[in-house]
Each structure stands twice: as C-alpha cells, then as structure tokens.
C-alpha cells in the first residue's frame, strides 16, 4: 500500500487536522474533528448539511463555504458519519430557518441522517432531506429511488446553496434541489481499484486492459466490464445511457461535469469532455456551464464520470452563482 | 496503458480541443492549437508568456488568465514548444509594454524561448526572461542556476501576474519575479511512474514498497531511493532540505504549496500539509498563504512536492491578489 500516511487508523483524523490547519474558514464542533462546519454562519438562512464517508475529497466537506453548504458530518473512509455527529453539526449550523440534509443515497447515511433529523425535531429544529441519486448505472428507469448518489450531487450543492443564500425558505430550497436532482444524470467508468488504508489491499481486481462502466465510487458493481476502448467510443457508449433519459428538444440548456475519480490525469478528462461536448451538441443540447476536474473521488481510483444537469430558467441562474469554499471556487462570469 | 485516449498521436491536440471547447476565455493563435492565449489582453500591461511540455496540467496553460499569465506555448507530452510557437504567442500577447518569459529551467525550453526572444527583438518586441529553478534536489547550493523548475513556479506566476496587472513596468516585474524565484524552494517525492502516451510504457521502474525523494516531474533521478516511510518521517526528511536553505529568524512569513503529482489523493496531501505546518511552525515560520492540490503534475504519477516561498513585505501582497483562470481561482480574503 503506497500511501502518504502514518498509522492507517489515524488517517482521517490527520487529514482533518491538516484541513483545519490550512483553512481557518472552517472548524469543528467541540472536540470532534468529524463535525465540520464553516465559521461564518448566516443569520436567518436555511442551513445545509451534507456528509458521508471520507476518501472522496473534495466530496463531502469540500463544498462547505460561501453560497454552498454550512456543515458536514465526516465518517471514516467509506463509512457514514454517526447520527450524533450529524446532530452536532445540525445544532451548530441551524440559524432558525431550518436545515436541509443533502447527501448521497446510501443506506448507512440515510439511517444516520434520518435519526439525526428525528432528534433535531425533538429539539425544535426543522429538517428536510434531499438525496442525490444521479448514477444511472445503479438502477433502471422506474426505480430511480434506488440509484446511488455520485458526482452529480455537486450540482445539487450548487443549486441548494445558491437558493439558501438568496434567503429562500426551506420548502423552496427543497423544491429547487429536488428539481435539480430529478434532472441530473451521471455515468461513470473505472479503470483501477483504490485501497482503503485500514484494509490495506485493493478494493477489487480488474484486468490490465479492462474497464468497468457504471462502477460506483466505492467499487460497487457496474453494468459491464470489458476491454478498454478508445476514449471517443467509450464516451459514446456512456452518453447513450444519459441520452436515453434526457431529451433536449424543448429545454436545451445543460450543465456538464466531467469528474476524475482520483488517478486519472486532467488531460484525459479534457479528452473525455471534447467528445461529450460533441455528443451533446449533436443531440441538440446547449452547454451553459462546464466543470472539469476532481469533484468526487475514490482516493487513487483511476476512472471518470460524466454528469449532465438539464437546466431550466429557474436552475440555470442558481448554477451560475459564484461560490467560495477552501476546495471549490466558482467565479460568476 | 490504461488511459482515456484515442490515437496517442492525437492526445495533446484532442486535450487542447477539449480545453478550447470548455473555456471560451482562452483561444489559440491562428490554426495552431499549441499557441494558447487569453482572449482579453490588457492594453499597456506587461504580457507574461510561459510554456513547456504537456502532461503537467494545470501547468502550464492553466495559469493563463486574469491577474496571472497571458499566453503559453504548449509542447507535446514532456516536449518543449517550438520557438515559432513561442514567437506566435509573443506577437499576439504583446501590448506594447514588453513580454516576460517565465518557465521552468529545462534546456529545450531555454533554447526555444531564447530563440523566440531574439526573433521578437528583431520585430521590436522587448522580452525578458525569468526561469523557475526551485527544485532543491536537482543541484547543490552554489549551483542553484542548474536546478530544475517544478511546482514552485506557481508562486512566480502569482507574483509576476499580480505585478504586471498592477501595471508595473517590465524591469520591475522581472525584479519581483526574480526575487520570488530566489526565495522559493521545492522538494518532491515520487511513488510511481507515469506513462507517456506515445511511449506506452512506464517512464521508470520503482519497487512496490519504494519511494524516490527528489525525483523530477519527468522522472529525472532524485537524491535517494528507499523504503516508503510513514508520512511524518518523510515530511521531516524532505523539509530538512528546505530548512537548510531558509531561516525564519527575521522574515517569518511564508507561502506553502503542497502539490500532488497526479495519482495521489487529496486526503494524503492534507496529511502531508499537517506535518509540514508543524515543521514550519517549529522552525519559527508563520504560514500566510496555503495552496494544496494538483498544481504541477506528471499525468498519473503518484507523489507529492512541498514548496515554500519565503515572503517579504513586497511579495506577500502579490501572493494575496485574487486570480481567475479556467484552472486556477484564487479569491483574495
């Protein structure tokens, strides 16, 4: 296991210590480093809390900041934060306008956020929940509620964060975020596994010339495993899955996110974007916003995902709003 | 070779096509995709041109943008741009105040930039040159002029870009950039090789439990190869090289850049930063600016580097200035 770590058991805490040392804009609630919040809460604003396992930086905590999120519960590598941790964050970030829980559709996270929400309710803090479920490979049409949340959640963070910063009430932030969620589709491909430090060996095996389309960000099984094809053919095959669920006849505007899973060079993400843009243009779409880089990783996994959010007149301006976190800076044009 | 590419010969051009499709703020001069410039030149400002081989994104072209650079000559993977390409960029970006060539200390780049400068001179365009030579592992004290330029050049871009944007004359931009160069030290470590697409095999071999301290970003030999140590011990050893050349007795302020070489997860960079901050604090330094992420890569190489710029009252405000390129966004606090 070739990693820059000390004792694997301390990996997440030492990473968090590094983050707090580097970025005074964020801090932890009390003694627990896993309860991650921004230091500048906004009075009367709907607060937004995310969370999930470590090992996906800049997901999840990286989106806590101006015009984005207010706090995150941070679990161990690929582990959910506890309900107590989510509750601690909830108490800290609540500014009287309620709290939106916004995270990916995984059973451990659902359980712990739901429990935290119930406990917060007893304390008079209103909460609501929207889960990201953008991974088209993880369940068929008609069963979208079963889909996993992957990189497309960044669009949801953007929309929810901008809506909350515009001081919209909780119900309206929820409505807009749900709309963005219903219009976001992601398809991924993995070329190599990652290594969870405490496990110490690769999360799965894959042949030296193979790829797996649709693999999840924790190595969950995908749709098809086969020989690696040229990039353009691969993008065409991936985008078929997206185009099967989106049509740009009447609503043409889209936001696109090309996400690297960890080890894939930025150069290759631009090769992927090139073909994605060609495919979308041919399908009649008009690309309004582009994000290319590492937004939701699986540590050193090689691979990439393509996310497309179909915009409307309500969502486009929310994606366009500037944002500023230690890990994500979006400057409005 | 597991890469998202089509024909390896088209890799750089297709990457560049992707970049131009994604980012309307930049374009190419004439037909040559390798002559990369921003679309909004600033009248009367000193123009800054960088360049070098592809395969290091966001280096080099990623720093072309507001308050940073004006153009870049882009070579093939790990290959210098030609003198003609640099000259084309020079002609395009010159706004009558002269052009600073700012790039890493590699013989191919030196030759081609020097030739371009001579040709520009014949056309009445004044040029000056500063080269990054921050890699302490590449030559001993007393022979700093032989050192290679690596991730620390980002500090030089920041300083030069801010100085030029403040409409300082060429000689003053050169003086400040030279000062930043003289005060920047970088030490790197590699855990794995990368694969140049047109070569198709790893650039070097390294044992499954080995690291090489001081390796260059093209796989140039380092100082020592040995068994991978825990992160803290490794940082201590690396920082010894930096501390041997910097003392914080009178000038305490520093900027720190923890750079990932490609495949190393962001989580590990924060573990490295944690220890780096501890070491610097113990040495009496005061960390004023922190940059952590991928700033100068070697495609999918696993590894990291630590850069420290010792600031003074002139340099600190230049590092603090905001910047906005498609690949690098710095929001002034």
From TrEMBL, chains A, B:
Ordered alphabetically, the record's keywords are: ATP-binding, Kinase, Nucleotide-binding, Transferase
GO molecular function terms listed in the Swiss-Prot or TrEMBL record? ATP binding; glycerone kinase activity
Output the GO biological process annotations, alphabetical, semicolon-separated: glycerol catabolic process
Q: What is this protein called?
A: Putative dihydroxyacetone kinase, dihydroxyacetone binding subunit
Keyword Transferase found: yes
Q: Does the keyword Kinase apply?
A: yes
- Give the EC number(s) under which this enzyme is classified: 2.7.1.29
Q: What is the lineage of its organism?
A: Bacteria, Pseudomonadati, Pseudomonadota, Alphaproteobacteria, Rhodobacterales
A cellular component term, taken from the record's GO annotations: cytosol
């Amino acid at each position: 296991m070739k990693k820059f770590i000390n004792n694997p058991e301390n990996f997440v805490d030492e990473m968090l210590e590094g983050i707090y040392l580097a970025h005074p804009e964020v801090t932890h609630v009390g003694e627990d480093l896993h309860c991650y919040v921004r230091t500048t809460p906004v009075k009367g604003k709907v607060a937004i809390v995310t969370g999930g396992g470590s090992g996906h930086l800049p997901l999840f905590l990286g989106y806590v900041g101006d015009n984005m999120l207010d706090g995150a519960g941070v679990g161990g590598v690929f582990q959910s934060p506890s309900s107590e941790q989510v509750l601690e964050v909830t108490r800290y970030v609540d500014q009287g306008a309620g709290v939106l829980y916004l995270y990916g559709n995984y059973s451990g996270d659902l359980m712990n956020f739901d429990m935290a929400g119930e406990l917060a309710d007893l304390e008079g803090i209103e909460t609501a929940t929207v889960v990201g479920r953008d991974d088209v490979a993880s369940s068929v049409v008609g069963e979208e509620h079963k889909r996993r949340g992957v990189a497309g959640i960044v669009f949801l963070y953007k929309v929810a964060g901008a809506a909350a910063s515009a001081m919209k009430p909780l119900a309206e932030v929820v409505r807009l975020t749900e709309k963005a969620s219903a219009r976001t589709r992601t398809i991924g491909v993995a070329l190599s596994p990652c290594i969870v430090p405490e496990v110490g060996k690769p999360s799965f095996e894959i042949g030296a010339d193979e790829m797996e389309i649709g693999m999840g960000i924790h190595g969950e099984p995908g749709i098809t495993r086969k020989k690696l094809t040229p990039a353009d053919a691969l993008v065409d095959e991936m985008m078929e899955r997206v185009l099967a669920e989106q049509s740009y006849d009447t609503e043409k505007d889209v936001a696109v996110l090309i996400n690297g899973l960890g080890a894939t060079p930025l150069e290759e993400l631009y090769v992927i974007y090139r073909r994605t843009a060609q495919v979308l243009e041919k399908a009649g779409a008009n690309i309004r916003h582009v994000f290319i880089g590492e937004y939701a990783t699986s540590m050193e996994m090689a691979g990439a995902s393509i996310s497309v959010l179909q915009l409307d007149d309500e969502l486009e301006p929310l994606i366009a709003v500037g944002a500023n976190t230690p890990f994500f800076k979006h400057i409005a044009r």
